[in-house]
Amino acid sequence: MMRKFLALLAAVAVFSLVGMQGAAAHKIKPSIKSLMKTPLAGIAGKEANVVLFKVGPGWKIDKHFHPGHVFVYMLQGSIKIEVEGAPARVIGAGDLLYEVPDRNMVASNISSTKGARFLVFQVGDIGKPLTVKVK
Length: 135
Description:
By secondary structure, the chain is an alpha+beta fold. Helices cover about 20% and strands about 45% of the residues. The strands form two sheets. A five-stranded antiparallel beta sheet has the order 1-2-9-4-7, with no helix packed on it. The chain has a five-stranded antiparallel beta sheet with strand order 6-5-8-3-10, with no helix packed on it. The chain is globular. The protein contains one helix and ten strands; from the N terminus they run H-E-E-E-E-E-E-E-E-E-E. Strand 1 and strand 2 form a beta hairpin.
C-alpha cells in the first residue's frame, strides 16, 4: 500500500513540475531583432522594416494592427493569425502571408511545447510604429 502511495506521489510531483515548466515557457518574452530599417528610394515618406521574431511555446499577441503592408515568412514552427473579417489561418515553416494594413488581428504560436521563428517585412510610413495595440 505504501509503495502505491509513493508511486502516486512521485507521479503527481513529476506532472506538477512539467506543468510548472510549461507555464514558465508561456511567459518567455519574444526575441525581436531588427535586421534592416531603411527609407525607400523613389517612394517619398515610405520605409522598409525587416524584423526577425523568435517566440516561445504558447506565445500570443493581443489585438493589434499594422499601419503598413506586412509580409510574414515562417522559418520554424507554426502560428495562427486571426484577422477581423477573414477566416483564421495557420502558417507553418516555408509559408508566406500578406497582411493588409490597418486590420485588427491577433496571432499565436499553436504549439504549447515548441517555439516559432518568423521573418516580418513591412512597408509603411517613415516613423510609424510596426504594431499598434488595440484597446
